[in-house]
Amino acid sequence: MTRPPSRFRPLWVALGFVLCAFGVLGLILPGFPGTVWFILAAAAFSRGDPRWEAWLLSRPVVGTLVADYRAGRGMPLRAKWIACVCIVLAVGLSLGRIPVLAGQVAWVLVGLAGVLFITLRVPTRRDTP
């Protein structure tokens, strides 16, 4: 991958920190994904400053998630279950707040697409003892 011009590198680093903040929110808020933000943050840091990328990858939980994604190892089965349950709960609990039937149907379809993506497209990592 070619490195961006040096004048853009601070912007990539700043974007990496913003994406990390979203990732932290994702670890705290139910129904809000965290891992995807850390994956994007690592990509931004890699374009801005590899030292920040190395810092992110050295974090105990986050670094493992990003490394597993990059290596194509997928998600542990337990994490897939938790993600799908969170999607179903988030859609179910918020459905009544959407006043238009078409909006409710669209929201259910978005949730269904998320569950299908996680179950069918994201590889399941099976840890062997």
UniProtKB/TrEMBL annotation:
One cellular component term from this protein's GO annotations in UniProt: plasma membrane
Highest taxon in the source lineage: Bacteria
InterPro entries with a match to the protein in the record: DUF454
Transmembrane regions: 12-40, 81-98, 104-122
Keywords linked to the UniProt accession: Membrane, Transmembrane, Transmembrane helix
UniProt protein name: DUF454 domain-containing protein
